[in-house]
Amino acid sequence: MSPITRGFRRRQEEPPEGNRLPPGQYLTRDFPVLSAGPTPDIPLDEWELSVTGAVDAPRRWSWDELQALPKEQPTVDIHCVTSWSKLDTGWEGVSVDTLLDGLDVFGAYVVVRSYGGYTTNLPLEDMTDGKAWIAYGYDGAPLEPEHGGPARLLVPHLYFWKSAKWVTELEIVETDEPGFWETLGYHDYGDPWREQRYWGD
Ligand SMILES: Nc1nc2c(c(=O)[nH]1)N[C@H]1C(S)=C(S)[C@@H](COP(=O)(O)O)O[C@H]1N2
Ligand SMILES: [Mo]
Question: How far is the CA of 5 from the centre of ligand 2 (A)?
Protein backbone atom coordinates (compact mmCIF):
# COMPACT_ATOMS: atom_id res chain seq x y z
CA MET A 1 0.00 0.00 0.00
CA SER A 2 1.34 3.36 -0.89
CA PRO A 3 1.58 5.95 1.90
CA ILE A 4 1.25 8.72 -0.66
CA THR A 5 -2.08 10.54 -0.86
CA ARG A 6 -2.87 11.41 -4.40
CA GLY A 7 -3.69 15.05 -5.04
CA PHE A 8 -6.57 14.48 -7.41
CA ARG A 9 -8.85 12.98 -4.74
CA ARG A 10 -9.63 16.35 -3.23
CA ARG A 11 -10.43 17.88 -6.59
CA GLN A 12 -12.95 15.18 -7.39
CA GLU A 13 -14.90 16.08 -4.27
CA GLU A 14 -15.46 19.68 -5.36
CA PRO A 15 -18.81 20.40 -7.02
CA PRO A 16 -18.36 20.46 -10.80
CA GLU A 17 -20.07 23.85 -11.04
CA GLY A 18 -17.74 25.38 -8.42
CA ASN A 19 -15.73 27.44 -10.85
CA ARG A 20 -18.75 28.47 -12.91
CA LEU A 21 -20.55 30.52 -10.28
CA PRO A 22 -19.46 34.18 -10.21
CA PRO A 23 -18.95 35.90 -6.83
CA GLY A 24 -22.13 36.67 -4.88
CA GLN A 25 -24.33 34.43 -7.05
CA TYR A 26 -26.43 31.36 -6.12
CA LEU A 27 -27.66 28.60 -8.40
CA THR A 28 -31.31 28.26 -9.32
CA ARG A 29 -33.08 25.53 -11.26
CA ASP A 30 -36.20 27.47 -12.17
CA PHE A 31 -36.25 30.41 -14.54
CA PRO A 32 -37.35 33.63 -12.80
CA VAL A 33 -39.04 36.34 -14.87
CA LEU A 34 -37.72 39.89 -14.45
CA SER A 35 -39.46 42.56 -16.49
CA ALA A 36 -39.59 46.30 -15.85
CA GLY A 37 -42.95 46.59 -17.62
CA PRO A 38 -45.71 44.56 -19.25
CA THR A 39 -44.96 41.77 -21.73
CA PRO A 40 -45.59 43.22 -25.20
CA ASP A 41 -47.74 41.30 -27.67
CA ILE A 42 -45.95 41.41 -31.02
CA PRO A 43 -47.66 39.73 -34.02
CA LEU A 44 -45.01 37.88 -36.01
CA ASP A 45 -46.15 39.48 -39.27
CA GLU A 46 -45.35 42.90 -37.77
CA TRP A 47 -42.16 41.88 -35.97
CA GLU A 48 -38.88 43.18 -37.32
CA LEU A 49 -35.25 43.38 -36.36
CA SER A 50 -32.90 46.04 -37.66
CA VAL A 51 -29.26 47.07 -37.49
CA THR A 52 -29.08 50.86 -37.76
CA GLY A 53 -26.86 53.83 -36.93
CA ALA A 54 -23.17 54.04 -37.81
CA VAL A 55 -23.16 51.45 -40.58
CA ASP A 56 -22.69 51.73 -44.34
CA ALA A 57 -26.19 50.41 -45.05
CA PRO A 58 -28.85 49.66 -42.43
CA ARG A 59 -30.31 46.14 -42.48
CA ARG A 60 -33.72 44.81 -41.57
CA TRP A 61 -35.18 41.34 -41.20
CA SER A 62 -38.77 40.19 -41.03
CA TRP A 63 -39.59 37.19 -38.85
CA ASP A 64 -39.41 34.83 -41.83
CA GLU A 65 -36.13 36.35 -42.98
CA LEU A 66 -34.63 35.86 -39.52
CA GLN A 67 -35.75 32.22 -39.47
CA ALA A 68 -34.03 31.68 -42.83
CA LEU A 69 -30.62 32.70 -41.45
CA PRO A 70 -28.20 30.04 -40.19
CA LYS A 71 -29.13 29.12 -36.62
CA GLU A 72 -27.04 28.07 -33.67
CA GLN A 73 -27.87 26.25 -30.44
CA PRO A 74 -25.69 27.71 -27.71
CA THR A 75 -25.64 26.16 -24.23
CA VAL A 76 -24.56 28.86 -21.80
CA ASP A 77 -24.60 29.95 -18.15
CA ILE A 78 -26.63 33.07 -17.30
CA HIS A 79 -26.20 35.43 -14.34
CA CYS A 80 -28.82 37.90 -13.12
CA VAL A 81 -27.73 40.92 -11.07
CA THR A 82 -30.39 39.97 -8.47
CA SER A 83 -27.98 37.07 -7.70
CA TRP A 84 -29.42 34.01 -9.39
CA SER A 85 -27.38 32.07 -11.91
CA LYS A 86 -28.53 29.24 -14.12
CA LEU A 87 -26.07 26.81 -15.68
CA ASP A 88 -26.29 25.07 -19.06
CA THR A 89 -29.30 26.92 -20.44
CA GLY A 90 -30.10 25.81 -24.00
CA TRP A 91 -31.07 28.34 -26.62
CA GLU A 92 -31.68 28.58 -30.36
CA GLY A 93 -31.10 31.64 -32.46
CA VAL A 94 -28.92 33.59 -34.83
CA SER A 95 -25.44 34.77 -33.96
CA VAL A 96 -25.00 38.55 -34.05
CA ASP A 97 -21.94 37.80 -36.23
CA THR A 98 -24.33 36.50 -38.88
CA LEU A 99 -26.36 39.73 -38.77
CA LEU A 100 -23.26 41.91 -39.10
CA ASP A 101 -21.48 39.77 -41.68
CA GLY A 102 -20.09 41.95 -44.47
CA LEU A 103 -21.38 45.18 -42.94
CA ASP A 104 -19.09 48.21 -42.58
CA VAL A 105 -19.45 49.46 -39.01
CA PHE A 106 -18.20 52.88 -37.86
CA GLY A 107 -19.05 52.84 -34.15
CA ALA A 108 -17.69 50.81 -31.23
CA TYR A 109 -20.88 50.72 -29.10
CA VAL A 110 -24.40 49.38 -29.46
CA VAL A 111 -27.70 50.68 -28.13
CA VAL A 112 -30.11 47.75 -28.02
CA ARG A 113 -33.81 48.66 -28.26
CA SER A 114 -36.81 46.53 -27.46
CA TYR A 115 -40.51 46.56 -28.11
CA GLY A 116 -41.97 48.32 -25.06
CA GLY A 117 -39.15 50.86 -24.84
CA TYR A 118 -36.44 49.00 -22.88
CA THR A 119 -32.87 49.84 -23.88
CA THR A 120 -29.44 48.63 -22.88
CA ASN A 121 -25.93 49.45 -24.06
CA LEU A 122 -22.77 47.47 -24.62
CA PRO A 123 -19.52 47.60 -26.53
CA LEU A 124 -19.80 46.15 -30.02
CA GLU A 125 -16.91 43.80 -29.30
CA ASP A 126 -19.06 42.13 -26.62
CA MET A 127 -21.56 41.18 -29.29
CA THR A 128 -19.17 39.74 -31.87
CA ASP A 129 -16.94 36.65 -32.21
CA GLY A 130 -19.58 34.22 -30.96
CA LYS A 131 -20.49 36.12 -27.80
CA ALA A 132 -24.11 37.16 -28.56
CA TRP A 133 -27.23 35.83 -30.25
CA ILE A 134 -30.74 36.85 -31.20
CA ALA A 135 -32.50 33.95 -29.47
CA TYR A 136 -36.00 32.74 -30.36
CA GLY A 137 -35.89 29.26 -28.86
CA TYR A 138 -35.32 28.07 -25.31
CA ASP A 139 -35.11 24.50 -24.01
CA GLY A 140 -36.33 23.03 -27.29
CA ALA A 141 -39.42 25.25 -27.64
CA PRO A 142 -40.24 28.73 -28.95
CA LEU A 143 -39.10 31.37 -26.48
CA GLU A 144 -41.96 32.22 -24.10
CA PRO A 145 -43.24 35.83 -24.34
CA GLU A 146 -42.45 36.48 -20.66
CA HIS A 147 -38.83 35.50 -21.33
CA GLY A 148 -38.57 37.77 -24.36
CA GLY A 149 -40.34 36.00 -27.19
CA PRO A 150 -40.62 36.33 -30.13
CA ALA A 151 -36.87 37.05 -29.78
CA ARG A 152 -34.42 38.42 -27.28
CA LEU A 153 -30.78 39.31 -27.18
CA LEU A 154 -28.59 36.74 -25.42
CA VAL A 155 -25.22 37.98 -24.12
CA PRO A 156 -24.43 35.40 -21.44
CA HIS A 157 -21.01 36.69 -20.36
CA LEU A 158 -22.56 39.92 -18.99
CA TYR A 159 -25.26 40.27 -16.31
CA PHE A 160 -28.59 39.25 -17.77
CA TRP A 161 -30.11 42.76 -17.88
CA LYS A 162 -27.93 43.26 -20.99
CA SER A 163 -29.89 40.44 -22.69
CA ALA A 164 -32.78 42.63 -23.84
CA LYS A 165 -36.09 40.82 -24.20
CA TRP A 166 -38.38 41.60 -27.18
CA VAL A 167 -35.40 43.01 -29.07
CA THR A 168 -36.08 44.94 -32.28
CA GLU A 169 -33.08 47.17 -33.01
CA LEU A 170 -29.32 47.17 -32.65
CA GLU A 171 -28.17 50.75 -33.16
CA ILE A 172 -24.43 51.13 -33.70
CA VAL A 173 -23.18 54.34 -32.10
CA GLU A 174 -19.80 56.05 -31.84
CA THR A 175 -20.24 57.17 -28.22
CA ASP A 176 -21.43 54.91 -25.40
CA GLU A 177 -24.96 55.84 -24.22
CA PRO A 178 -26.40 54.36 -21.01
CA GLY A 179 -29.60 52.35 -21.38
CA PHE A 180 -32.58 51.88 -19.06
CA TRP A 181 -30.97 50.21 -16.03
CA GLU A 182 -27.58 51.80 -16.67
CA THR A 183 -29.21 55.24 -16.24
CA LEU A 184 -30.84 54.06 -12.98
CA GLY A 185 -27.59 53.00 -11.31
CA TYR A 186 -26.62 49.67 -12.81
CA HIS A 187 -23.03 49.30 -13.96
CA ASP A 188 -22.29 50.45 -17.50
CA TYR A 189 -20.53 47.18 -18.44
CA GLY A 190 -21.82 44.52 -16.03
CA ASP A 191 -19.19 41.76 -15.85
CA PRO A 192 -20.45 39.15 -13.34
CA TRP A 193 -16.93 37.81 -12.70
CA ARG A 194 -15.82 41.29 -11.56
CA GLU A 195 -19.16 41.76 -9.75
CA GLN A 196 -19.93 44.96 -11.64
CA ARG A 197 -23.49 45.34 -10.40
CA TYR A 198 -23.83 49.08 -9.75
CA TRP A 199 -22.13 52.38 -10.53
CA GLY A 200 -18.70 52.41 -8.90
CA ASP A 201 -18.37 48.59 -8.58
N1 LIG B 1 -37.14 44.40 -22.73
C2 LIG B 1 -36.68 44.03 -21.53
N3 LIG B 1 -35.61 43.24 -21.48
C4 LIG B 1 -35.11 42.84 -20.29
C5 LIG B 1 -35.69 43.27 -19.09
C6 LIG B 1 -36.80 44.12 -19.17
O7 LIG B 1 -37.37 44.55 -18.15
N8 LIG B 1 -37.28 44.47 -20.40
N9 LIG B 1 -35.14 42.87 -17.89
C10 LIG B 1 -33.74 42.47 -17.90
C11 LIG B 1 -33.33 41.85 -16.69
S12 LIG B 1 -33.03 42.86 -15.35
C13 LIG B 1 -33.09 40.52 -16.61
S14 LIG B 1 -32.41 39.78 -15.22
C15 LIG B 1 -33.48 39.62 -17.71
C16 LIG B 1 -34.48 38.64 -17.19
O17 LIG B 1 -34.85 37.74 -18.19
P18 LIG B 1 -35.92 36.64 -17.84
O19 LIG B 1 -37.18 37.35 -17.42
O20 LIG B 1 -36.08 35.83 -19.06
O21 LIG B 1 -35.34 35.85 -16.69
O22 LIG B 1 -34.02 40.30 -18.81
C23 LIG B 1 -33.45 41.55 -19.08
N24 LIG B 1 -34.01 42.03 -20.30
MO1 LIG C 1 -31.94 41.53 -13.77
Answer: 45
Asked whether 134 and 148 are in contact (CB, 8 A), the reply is: no
Could you state, in order of their start, the residue ranges of all structural domains in the chain?
47-194
CATH of domain 47-194: 3.90.420.10
Does pTM top 0.85 for this prediction? yes
Average pLDDT value over all residues in the chain:
93
Cα–ligand 1 centroid distance for 171 (angstroms): 19
Residue closest via CA to ligand 1's atom 2 equals 165
* Residue whose CA is at the smallest distance from ligand 1 atom 23: 161
Q: What value does the CA radius of gyration of the chain take, rounded to a whole number of Å?
A: 19
Query: What are the residues whose beta carbons fall under 8 Å from the beta carbon of 2, sequence distance 6 or more?
Result: none
Q: Which atom of ligand 1 is nearest to the CA of 34?
A: 19
Is residue 140 within 8 Å of residue 158, measured between CB atoms?
no
